[in-house]
């Protein structure tokens, strides 16, 4: 049984190892995706707080002066006073100093380095109707789960928790593989389990609602009729409505709705450290009333479980400390694959040399 499990462990690693390395490297970067983006585009993101920030309407006017005739599609309002506002145009994301109205620059539309990293982690850059890339990633996570559990079983009789110098490089890499694996096991198991929940969300999300005995809260899809002679409310007013709908949450994004469509506002509570937030409010642009709201505090239990699962997987749940743990654990997956491959390769070389010596002796 042990030999069979060892062979299955080896073959699973050889088949899925390359995908696990990709997931580990990209996952370690994605844990600090917002921080890296602000570092790479320092001049666009960072501003000096001074006085009252501009309203959304004033920010829109500043961008319209810089890019006349170009419609805006959405506004990102920074919760932190040291970070700039952004306006979505067709050409890309326009960064604006919310205290002076100065346009800081444009991040062109399309994927940049971090965008490629993100899509490589999610779906291996494979985009098609069948979402083949996401399926490959999900099954690579299944292989990772098997490798973790079988690895602990195989490690148990040895219980190596130290790395020592050996004449045999195979033994050295065995120590690295065993020690790194056991110290990172719990964290990798958590990342893998939460990743599987995301990867198979069509199955797991309904299951979480069923377990919690809750039902999803779905936003209405009916088109909004524009009353004759009534002008839509401003984005600033929609922000106020969203604040009243979810007290204590700070709005940070609003779209520019198409005709007969509502405002969609995204908000974040102080304890919600996920960059994209997990609270939403839909606002009727003509009546100025909230027509649907779901906050991360008051969402159905199933939704809160989905939110928590994603926050754990990305490392956002406790901020920088949990991001660091998630990033390091992702790198440990890479160490596991590479040390296992080197251990297997050195063992193969040793067996080849031994076979050659045996053949030479027989001759």
Structural features:
single chain, 363 residues, alpha+beta, eight-stranded antiparallel beta sheet, 11 helices
Provide a descriptive summary of the structure in words.
The mean pLDDT is 93. This protein has an 8-stranded antiparallel beta sheet with strand order 4-3-2-1-5-6-7-8. It starts with a helix and ends with a helix. Strand 2 and strand 3 form a beta hairpin. The radius of gyration is 26 Å and the shape is elongated. It is 55% helix and 11% strand. It is α+β, with helices and mostly antiparallel strands and 363 residues long. The chain has a domain at 2-34 and 114-212 and 318-353.
Amino- and carboxy-terminal Cα gap: 37 Å
Instruction: Give the spatial strand order of the biggest sheet.
Output: 4-3-2-1-5-6-7-8
Largest sheet: 8 strands, antiparallel
Count of alpha/pi helices: 11
